[in-house]
């Protein structure tokens, strides 16, 4: 057996518990193969359990472990770092909990906060340096830690309650979907619900549009009076949240 | 004669001890798991920079996969090089094992058959790694739970040939020798006698657990007497090299690990005197 064949058999044993692969690796290896498979599954389970702590609290340990084990059965790891294994789990939650969207939203929030924690560094602009900016033409570069997604439930409030260890609210659909914003301020991952028009503003800023064009986009979405007010609110919030890391 | 140095693996429960103490912790160096810090930014990189201001750091990896038949991951090596450039490590090490094949990454240290083919693969991969890293690597002997009966070389013969062909050095894990010896029925003293002693640059000490059929390298207990005894023999053989305690689970208060490190210091001092 070549080294490549041996390593493929080992992979098939770990990822699929292939009996044929185990037989080719030899009967004397059985006890050791069991140790390696246990290590493999334990490390993936620990990754999911650590990253999706609030999902685990929401579902309970037994339910979470059953779902995580099922995910591991069909999702082999590919990334250079074990942390990357967490990335596919929210999609599994979305597929498994079609009627409970709060579960996938909690999963997205757990993962986004974890990823923001180690996202690239970028110092926020100093508010005192903004006095002479030509805002109409200014292009705002947002923090590389920023992530957004629409939420249809009160998963944000549930996440906070679970994190605080207090009474957890029941899951409720929102009257209107909101956009959840995750980013890192200083060294701490944060989240909040986007202000009216903020999702649009983020989208335009990410496209490299000037602040003047962002204002125009907000006026188009919210009307003149609300759009202008929203632009000021959003800009102030971005500055205080440390979300603007460069101005050109 | 060189003076041995003594360090600890830096783990999360001790970040505060290392960063907030008014006096630096009494270690000569700390070792970190490279992958935990090969991230883009945030708190982990900041912690590493702060610790580096107080202590030399060794980078110890678990995912280089120098035994992969389909080669090493150059993106991984570039990330590791960037980290090494930033912190100027004492050593850059990984394991004699494979973790990855065909895009699948097991995130475990999987065993190699000690064949000429595997030796060629390992040596080619180490050569690439050393070229990208711009420095010689340290390669650690693994604990293993499977041995391949038709392999013509012992692990120590494999390590000897690997060091000769690549110029790499060894990170000798004394606990791993004991665990593998118990699991595969060889004499740990034969192992020590067979390794190229002059290539050993660092020693790991750790504890293990008894599994159902095999000893398991769990790093969740103090260094046991049998490993201390083997460490005595190892120090007598390889001389004064950097030694550290590796504890990954059930991590005790820092003081407990410093007490274990004092035992290592005492053994090394005794063996150094004997050698003199």
Could you please describe the fold and organization of this structure?
The complex is a heterodimer of chains A (248) and B (276). By secondary structure, chain A is of the alpha+beta class. Chain A has 2 domains: 1-99, no CATH class; 121-248, Outer Surface Protein A, domain 3. Chain A has 11 helices and 5 strands, in the order H-H-H-H-H-H-H-E-E-H-E-E-H-H-H-E. Chain A has helices at 3-16, 19-25, 30-51, 53-59, 61-74, 89-96, 101-117, 155-164, 198-206, 211-222, 224-241, and strands spanning 140-142, 147-153, 173-185, 188-193, 244-247. In chain A, the strands form 2 sheets. Chain A has a 3-stranded antiparallel sheet, with helices on one face. A two-stranded antiparallel sheet of chain A has the order 1-5. In chain A, strand 3 (173-185) and strand 4 form a beta hairpin. The longest helix of chain A has 22 residues, at 30-51. The N and C termini of chain A lie far apart (60 Å). The mean pLDDT of chain A is 95. Chain B has a single domain (6-275), classed as Divalent-metal-dependent TIM barrel enzymes (TIM Barrel), CATH 3.20.20.150. An 8-stranded parallel β-barrel of chain B has the order 1-2-3-4-7-8-9-12. A two-stranded antiparallel sheet of chain B has the order 5-6. In chain B, helix 4 (74-87) links the parallel strand 3 and strand 4. In chain B, helix 5 (116-133) packs across helix 6 and helix 9 packs across helix 10. The longest helix of chain B is centred in the last third of the chain and has 22 residues, at 254-275. The chains are: A alpha+beta (248), B alpha/beta (276). The interface between A and B is large, with 42 and 49 residues.
Question: Secondary structure elements and their pairing?
Answer:
The complex is a heterodimer of chains A (248) and B (276).
Chain A lengths: L2 H14 L2 H7 L4 H22 L1 H7 L1 H14 L14 H8 L4 H17 L22 E3 L4 E7 L1 H10 L8 E13 L2 E6 L4 H9 L4 H12 L1 H18 L2 E4 L1
Antiparallel strand pairs in A: 1-5, 2-3, 3-4
Helix pairs in contact in A: 1-2, 1-3, 3-5, 4-5, 4-7, 6-7, 7-8, 9-10, 10-11
Chain B lengths: L5 E4 L5 H6 L8 E5 H4 L5 H12 L2 E4 L13 H14 L4 E4 L2 E4 L2 E7 L5 H18 L4 E3 L14 H12 L2 E5 H11 L3 H7 L5 E6 L3 E2 L4 E2 L8 H14 L3 E4 L8 H22 L1
Parallel strand pairs in B: 1-2, 1-12, 2-3, 3-4, 4-7, 7-8, 8-9, 9-12
Antiparallel strand pairs in B: 5-6, 10-11
Helix pairs in contact in B: 5-6, 8-9, 9-10
């Amino acid at each position: 057996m070549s080294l490549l064949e041996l390593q493929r058999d080992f992979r098939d044993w770990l990822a699929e518990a292939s009996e044929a692969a185990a037989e080719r690796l030899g009967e004397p290896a059985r006890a050791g193969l069991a140790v390696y498979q246990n290590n493999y599954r334990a490390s993936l389970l620990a990754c999911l359990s650590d990253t999706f702590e609030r999902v685990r609290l929401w579902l309970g340990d037994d339910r979470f472990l059953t779902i995580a084990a099922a995910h591991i059965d069909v999702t082999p790891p590919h990334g250079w770092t074990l942390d990357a294994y967490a990335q596919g789990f929210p999609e599994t939650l979305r597929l498994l909990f079609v009627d409970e969207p709060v579960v996938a939203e909690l999963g997205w929030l757990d993962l986004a906060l974890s990823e923001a924690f180690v996202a690239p560094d970028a110092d926020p602009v100093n508010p005192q340096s903004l006095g002479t900016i030509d805002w109409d033409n200014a292009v705002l570069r947002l923090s590389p830690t920023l992530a957004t997604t629409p939420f249809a439930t009160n998963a944000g409030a549930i996440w906070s309650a679970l994190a605080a260890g207090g009474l957890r609210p029941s899951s409720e659909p929102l009257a209107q979907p909101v956009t959840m914003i995750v980013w890192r301020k200083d060294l701490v991952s944060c989240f909040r619900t986007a202000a009216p028009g903020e999702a649009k503003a983020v989208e335009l800023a990410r496209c490299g549009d000037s602040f003047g064009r962002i204002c125009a986009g907000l006026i188009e979405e919210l009307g003149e009076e609300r759009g202008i007010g929203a632009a000021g609110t959003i800009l102030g919030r971005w500055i205080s949240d440390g979300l603007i890391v460069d101005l050109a | 004669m060189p003076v041995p140095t003594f360090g600890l693996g830096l783990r999360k429960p001790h970040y505060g001890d290392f960063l907030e103490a008014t006096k630096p912790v009494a270690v000569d160096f700390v070792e970190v798991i490279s992958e935990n810090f090969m991230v883009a930014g945030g708190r982990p990189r900041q912690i590493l920079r702060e610790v580096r201001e107080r202590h030399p750091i060794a980078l110890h990896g678990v995912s280089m996969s120098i035994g992969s038949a389909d080669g090493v991951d150059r993106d991984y090596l570039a990330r590791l090089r960037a980290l090494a450039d930033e912190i100027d490590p004492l050593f850059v090490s990984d394991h004699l094992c494979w973790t990855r094949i065909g895009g699948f990454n097991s995130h475990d240290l999987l065993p190699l058959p000690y064949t000429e083919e595997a030796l060629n693969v390992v040596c080619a991969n180490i050569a690439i790694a050393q070229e990208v890293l711009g420095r010689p690597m340290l390669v650690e002997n693994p604990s293993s739970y499977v041995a391949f009966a038709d392999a013509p070389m012992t692990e120590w013969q494999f390590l000897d040939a690997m060091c000769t062909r690549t110029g790499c050095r060894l990170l000798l894990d004394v606990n791993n020798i004991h665990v593998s010896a118990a699991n595969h029925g060889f004499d740990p003293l034969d192992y020590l006698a067979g390794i190229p002693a002059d290539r050993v640059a660092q020693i790991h000490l750790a504890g293990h657990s008894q599994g159902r059929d095999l000893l398991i390298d769990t790093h969740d207990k103090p260094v046991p007497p049998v490993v201390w005894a083997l460490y005595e023999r190892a120090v007598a053989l390889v001389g004064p090299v950097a030694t550290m305690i590796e504890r990954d689970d059930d991590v005790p208060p820092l003081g407990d690990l410093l007490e274990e490190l004092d035992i290592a210091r005492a053994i090394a001092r005794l063996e150094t005197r004997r050698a003199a």
